[in-house]
């Protein structure tokens, strides 16, 4: 079932042809085995390409030039992220071109080994929480070189997201405890942004983190690496961790009280749209939203300030 209106179809045969053409430009052989990774992305068709590569084809879009420009920015961000990350992360290989069958450019990047985290798989692991804190610290140490938040998406002003969250709350009637969630958002939305922007992954959800033996071993979807509210990457505390392990992350990063509560606000802003939007089309993402909102509602006095 398509996750989005106007979603582009991509057959394995089309993917193989387009990826082969892109690799040929680099003098690389075509991959003999291309495997779609069903459910691996909410914005892309994701395919494993042989043992060492991965391809991401946008699910939606109409303007090839605009998509190519976006992918160019993403590839630069991926390279910058990989240089500073304490664990492996994808590196860009090539931007492939579409054709009459699939019209948009796409990304080919390196494969990173590891098991995808879930909202519960490392929830009580102090070791994982410490690794996650070390990742966030390493990202924050990168010089933003004068860059600041661009004003698009999460990571700037919380009240800017009021219209979307109001829609999500309305659509969540019958699915979630909406009165309690309205009260929580009212409490969180006005928290001031007082800390300077820092470099951030910007989407630290379970599906973008790889684990092995309760340790963080890789990070995915790094093309959004950019300056943002330092609280933004703290969404991971609510998407992945229960109370004790959240305390490990918070203590290891020495998070100020205000930033901690803003991190909860960003987690709310992300999670509230997942339950209703993906209820039928992506149960994994819908379940993530439920899990995160459960943790936020359960925090009680910790988020009252």
UniProtKB/TrEMBL annotation:
InterPro entries: AGP_Transferase, Aminoglycoside_PTrfase, Kinase-like_dom_sf. It comes from the Bacteria. Gene3D superfamilies: 3.90.1200.10, Phosphorylase Kinase, domain 1. GO terms for molecular function: kinase activity. Residues 48-266 form the Aminoglycoside phosphotransferase domain. Keywords: Kinase, Transferase. It holds the Pfam family APH. This is Aminoglycoside phosphotransferase (APT) family kinase protein. It comes from Brachybacterium fresconis.
């Amino acid at each position: 079932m398509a996750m989005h209106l106007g979603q582009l179809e991509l057959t394995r045969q089309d993917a193989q042809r387009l990826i082969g053409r892109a690799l040929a430009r680099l003098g690389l052989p075509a991959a003999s085995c291309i495997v779609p990774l069903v459910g691996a992305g909410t914005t892309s068709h994701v395919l494993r390409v042989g043992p060492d590569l991965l391809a991401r084809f946008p699910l939606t879009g109409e303007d090839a030039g605009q998509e190519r420009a976006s992918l160019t920015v993403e590839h630069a961000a991926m390279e910058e992220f990989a240089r500073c990350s304490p664990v492996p992360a994808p590196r860009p290989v090539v931007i492939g071109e579409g054709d009459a069958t699939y019209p948009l450019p796409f990304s080919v990047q390196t494969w990173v080994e590891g098991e995808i985290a879930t909202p519960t798989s490392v929830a009580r692991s102090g070791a994982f929480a410490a690794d996650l804190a070390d990742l966030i610290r390493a990202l924050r140490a990168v010089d933003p070189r004068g860059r600041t938040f661009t004003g698009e998406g999460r990571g700037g002003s919380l009240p800017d997201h009021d219209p979307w969250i109001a829609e999500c709350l309305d659509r969540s009637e019958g699915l979630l405890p909406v009165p309690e969630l309205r009260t929580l958002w009212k409490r969180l939305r006005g928290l001031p942004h007082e800390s300077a922007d820092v470099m951030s992954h910007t989407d630290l959800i379970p599906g973008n983190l790889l684990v092995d033996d309760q340790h963080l071993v890789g990070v995915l979807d790094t093309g959004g690496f950019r300056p943002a509210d330092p609280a933004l990457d703290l969404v991971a505390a609510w998407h992945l961790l229960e109370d004790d392990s959240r305390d490990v992350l918070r203590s290891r990063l020495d998070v100020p009280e205000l930033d901690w509560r803003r991190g909860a606000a960003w987690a709310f802003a992300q999670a509230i749209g997942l339950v209703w939007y993906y209820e039928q089309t992506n149960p994994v993402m819908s379940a993530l939203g439920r899990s995160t909102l459960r943790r936020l509602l359960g925090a009680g006095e910790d988020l009252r300030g």
